[in-house]
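Record passed on underneath.
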Amino acid sequence: MPRLLNDQPCEVTFDDRISDTRITLFYRLPTTEERIKYSNSLVSKRRNKIETSMGEARLKYGAAILLGFKEGAFETDKGLLASDPKAPHYDPDWKNIVRKYAPDVIAILAFHVFEASLVLDESPGGEEGAEEADSPL
């Protein structure tokens, strides 16, 4: 399936080892500016030291693109948590709750979208085979 280039929400599903369930997140594609700022914010040089800000960058930009999640993914002491305003378990503070108690979920979303969206095909005959198959000659 080709990559969709539009403003429609995207979704990704992760296996959550803490709850032993699958969590589906809805997100938007980051802008070019966000991608650049994300990359630039991963490391910085202060005086003569290289400092990493990977955790902070993943939380900041992951939260920025996170639009919601499938109902049933999270539960609080009050019951199920929903990100959809039409859902009976909707909490307008859902993003802050997820950020506080499940920052790993936001971080893996950022990793998936900003850092691991493209993977080299390293299978035998992967790139070379693909070039030969696509070649018009």
Summary: The radius of gyration is 19 Å. The helical segments are 32-41, 54-65, 94-101, 103-115, 126-134. The beta strands are 10-16, 21-27, 43-46, 49-52, 66-69, 74-76, 79-81.
